[in-house]
């Protein structure tokens, strides 16, 4: 039954969204996005917060992020994606793989995530959490996403612009130096915004 999991996930993300600014530490700033982090409550790594403004409608931005064929077209980190089960139009289980990072210090990863998209204020929230589900494919390490999500809301004073705020806490697993993981996460999130910006212009 997907409904209790969807509700719990949504409530967790809304709680992250209300964490005061004073608890976050700046991790990276680029022209497209700002990334902060704080210790995760879920595991020994960090909860990352990323934020940037995109010149497009909320629905179109979220359609690019949530599970579906358009995600593979622009997200340079994602190498495959299969939707394994669909519960409703806005709710599914997907399996995807990611490319190696940092000159392959971080080997390719596989994830199986429950994904849920719902309305939030005047915009949308698309969120996910990993499931222990199915066999791990050879040549991949199975990573685990603790509650993650993207809030996308229209900017009232700037018609046609949206504020995209993401919360990501990924346990990559495998034998990895934590410093490499932290460097990769900040850069990956900043690149996500610049890749998404380019994709929305096409």
UniProtKB/TrEMBL annotation:
Gene3D superfamilies: 3.30.530.20
Ranges for domain START: 1-202
Cellular-component GO terms for this entry: cytosol; endoplasmic reticulum
Pfam families on file: START (PF01852)
GO molecular function, one term: cholesterol binding
Gene Ontology biological-process annotations: cholesterol import; cholesterol transport involved in cholesterol storage; intracellular cholesterol transport
Organism superkingdom: Eukaryota
SMART domains: START
The protein, known as: StAR-related lipid transfer protein 4
Native organism: Cuculus canorus (Common cuckoo)
């Amino acid at each position: 039954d997907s409904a209790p999991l969807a509700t719990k996930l949504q409530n967790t993300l809304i709680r992250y969204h209300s964490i005061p600014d004073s608890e976050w530490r700046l991790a990276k700033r680029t022209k497209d996005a700002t990334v902060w982090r704080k210790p995760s409550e879920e595991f020994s790594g960090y909860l990352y917060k990323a934020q940037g403004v995109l010149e497009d409608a909320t629905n179109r931005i979220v359609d690019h992020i949530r599970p579906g064929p358009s995600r593979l077209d622009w997200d340079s980190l994602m190498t495959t994606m299969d939707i394994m089960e669909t519960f409703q139009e806005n709710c599914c289980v997907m399996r995807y793989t990611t490319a190696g990072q940092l000159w392959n210090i971080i080997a390719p990863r596989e994830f199986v995530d429950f994904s849920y998209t719902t309305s939030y204020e005047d915009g949308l929230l698309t969120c996910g959490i990993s499931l222990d589900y199915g066999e791990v494919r050879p040549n991949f390490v199975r990573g685990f996403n603790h509650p993650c999500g993207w809030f996308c809301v229209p900017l009232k004073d700037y018609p046609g612009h949206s504020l995209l705020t993401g919360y990501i806490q990924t346990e990559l697993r495998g034998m990895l130096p934590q410093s490499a993981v932290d460097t990769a996460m900040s850069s990956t999130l900043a690149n996500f915004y610049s890749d998404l910006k380019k994709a929305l212009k096409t």
